Amino acid sequence: MTEKEFKKFAEIFQALSNKTRLQILSGVMKDECNVSTMIVKLKLPQSTISQHLRILRNLKIIERRREGAKWCYRVIDKRVWEIIKLIEQM
To answer: pLDDT digits over 34-87, tens only?
Structure first.
């Protein structure tokens, strides 16, 4: 594994070490268009949710698409998908 690959994995694990981002990923895996639900469920302002989503997008863990007036997100990193599924089984 190259130095660049180790750095990328470290960045992903750092992102996953945040409880809110784990909750967001779990929610996105269940419902791609649930940003409004996340705001209510996590009791966080939209700006905070957006900051977390931006971090996950920048690391290419999730991607977004426009659906009408809302943004929908989906997990595109299959490794992260598997990690979240393992966490949910615990």
So the answer is: 788 889 989 999 999 999 999 999 999 999 999 888 889 999 999 999 999 999
The pTM of this model reads: 0.90
Domain ranges, ordered by start, for the chain: 3-89
Domain 3-89: state its class: mainly alpha
| Alpha-carbon 2 to chain mean position | 25
Q: Print the SS3 string covering 18-76.
A: CHHHHHHHHHHHHCCCCHHHHHHHHCCCHHHHHHHHHHHHHCCCEEEEEECCEEEEEEC
Return d(Cα 44, Cα 79) in angstroms, integer.
27
